[in-house]
C-alpha cells in the first residue's frame, strides 16, 4: 500500500542511509599536532669527539692519522698513565679509531634520561664493528655539555676479504648505540613562561592557518586564536603550567582539513628521481623526444709488407663510426590534462628518468607545465 505515511518513512530511511554514508566517508583531515609545532619546543643537536677501542686491527693507521695517537696519549695522561717520550713517539695502535658522535636532544629532556647516538669514523679506519666508545662529552652549539656518551657500537653492515678480493654490505665505518648517551643538563624552554603560545605551521599556508585558528575558536571561544600570517597562529593560553599543558593537549587533538598543497614537481638530478604533485596539470602542448646514439668501434689490423720490400710490419687501426637517431615520439596534450594522463603517456613511450627530466624542464620553459619546478 503506497500511503503518504509509507512514502514519508521511505524518504526518511533514504535520508538516513545518505547521512550514514556521509558519516562513514573518509575525511581528509589531520590533527593539529601533525600540522604545527610549538615555537620554543624544539630538538637540539649535540656533537662530540671521542675514541672507539677494541677493534680487531681495523682502526686508524697512526702514520696517516696522527690525531688518533694524540687523543690516546691525552686520555692516558688524564688517567694518570705517563708514557716515556720514546714509547709515546713510536706508539702505533691498530685497534683505536677517532670518531665523531652526533645525537638529537629531544625537548623537555631531563638529566638521567638516555638518548640514541650515532658514531662515525673520521680517520681511515676500515670498520667499527666490535668496538667500544669511550666516555665522550656531547656539547651543544653554546659549547656546554648536555650529555655523556659511552657504549658498544652496533654496525649494520659486514665485510670480508681474502687474497686481494673483498666484499662489503652497507657501511662499516658508521654505527649507532641505542640509549648510548645520558642527559646531564636540561635545555631551558620558554613554554612555562606566561603569555600567548605560537603555533608554527610545518607547511606555511594562509588557508590552513585560517582553518586552524577557526577550529580553535570554535572549540574554546572567539578570540582564542589568531592567524598572524601564513605560518604562525597565536593562541591565548592559561598562565599556570599544568593548565597550559592540558590546554595545548586539547588543541593538538583537534582535526583540521589542510588546504590543498600547491602544484609542484620536484626533480633530483643526481638520482634521476622525479616526484609530481597531485595538482599538476598541463596546458596545450606537443612533445617530441628522441635520442641520438653514436657508436665508435676500433679494430686493429696487422699490415704485413712484401717479403722482398724494405717495409716494416705495422699495426693499423680500422675505426668505424655509426650514428643512430631514435624515432621521436610526438605526444599531444590538451589543456587541463591531469597528472594521471601525463604519467600514462610518458610510460607508454618508455621515457627514462633522464628523458622525463628533460621533458618536464622543456614544458616549464614553454609555459605548458602549470606547477612549480624544483631541482634539488
TrEMBL record:
Belongs to the FlgI family. Residues 1-29 form the signal peptide. The keyword Methyltransferase does not apply. This is Flagellar P-ring protein. The basal body constitutes a major portion of the flagellar organelle and consists of four rings (L,P,S, and M) mounted on a central rod. It is found in: Bacterial flagellum basal body. One of its GO terms (biological process) is bacterial-type flagellum-dependent cell motility. GO terms for cellular component: bacterial-type flagellum basal body, distal rod, P ring; outer membrane-bounded periplasmic space. Assembles around the rod to form the L-ring and probably protects the motor/basal body from shearing forces during rotation. GO terms for molecular function: structural molecule activity. Pfam families: FlgI. The gene is flgI. Keywords: Bacterial flagellum, Cell projection, Cilium, Flagellum, Signal.
Amino acid at each position: 500500500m503506497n500511503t503518504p505515511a509509507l512514502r514519508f518513512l521511505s524518504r526518511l530511511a533514504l535520508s538516513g542511509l545518505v547521512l550514514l554514508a556521509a558519516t562513514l566517508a573518509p575525511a581528509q583531515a589531520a590533527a593539529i599536532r601533525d600540522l604545527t609545532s610549538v615555537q620554543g619546543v624544539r630538538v637540539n643537536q649535540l656533537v662530540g669527539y671521542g675514541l672507539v677501542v677494541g677493534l680487531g686491527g681495523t682502526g686508524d693507521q697512526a702514520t696517516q692519522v696522527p690525531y688518533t695517537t694524540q687523543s690516546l696519549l691525552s686520555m692516558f695522561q688524564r688517567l694518570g698513565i705517563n708514557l716515556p717520550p720514546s714509547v709515546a713517539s713510536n706508539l702505533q695502535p691498530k685497534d683505536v679509531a677517532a670518531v665523531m658522535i652526533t645525537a638529537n636532544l629531544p625537548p623537555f629532556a631531563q638529566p638521567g634520561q638516555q638518548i640514541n647516538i650515532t658514531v662515525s669514523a673520521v680517520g681511515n679506519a676500515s670498520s667499527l664493528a666490535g668496538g667500544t666508545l669511550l666516555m665522550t662529552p656531547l656539547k651543544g652549539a653554546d659549547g656546554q655539555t648536555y650529555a655523556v656518551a659511552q657504549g658498544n657500537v652496533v654496525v649494520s653492515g659486514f665485510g670480508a676479504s681474502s687474497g686481494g678480493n673483498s666484499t662489503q654490505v652497507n657501511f662499516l665505518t658508521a654505527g649507532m648505540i641505542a640509549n648510548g648517551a645520558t642527559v646531564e643538563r636540561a635545555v631551558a624552554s620558554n613554554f612555562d613562561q606566561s603569555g600567548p603560545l605560537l603555533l608554527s605551521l610545518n607547511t606555511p599556508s594562509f588557508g590552513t592557518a585560517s582553518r586552524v585558528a577557526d577550529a580553535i575558536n570554535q572549540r574554546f571561544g572567539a578570540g582564542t586564536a589568531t592567524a598572524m600570517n601564513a605560518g604562525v597562529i597565536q593562541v591565548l593560553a592559561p598562565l599556570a603550567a599544568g593548565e597550559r599543558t592540558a590546554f595545548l593537549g586539547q588543541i593538538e587533538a583537534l582535526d583540521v582539513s589542510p588546504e590543498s598543497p600547491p602544484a609542484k614537481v620536484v626533480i633530483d638530478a643526481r638520482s634521476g628521481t622525479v616526484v609530481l604533485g597531485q595538482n599538476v596539470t598541463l596546458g596545450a602542448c606537443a612533445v617530441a623526444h628522441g635520442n641520438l646514439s653514436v657508436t665508435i668501434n676500433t679494430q686493429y689490423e696487422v699490415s704485413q709488407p712484401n717479403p722482398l720490400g724494405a717495409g716494416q710490419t705495422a699495426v693499423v687501426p680500422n675505426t668505424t663510426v655509426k650514428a643512430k637517431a631514435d624515432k621521436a615520439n610526438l605526444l599531444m596534450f590538451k589543456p587541463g590534462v591531469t597528472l594521471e594522463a601525463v604519467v600514462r603517456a610518458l610510460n607508454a613511450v618508455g621515457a627514462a628518468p633522464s628523458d622525463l627530466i628533460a621533458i618536464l624542464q622543456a614544458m616549464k620553459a614553454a609555459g605548458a607545465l602549470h606547477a612549480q619546478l624544483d631541482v634539488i
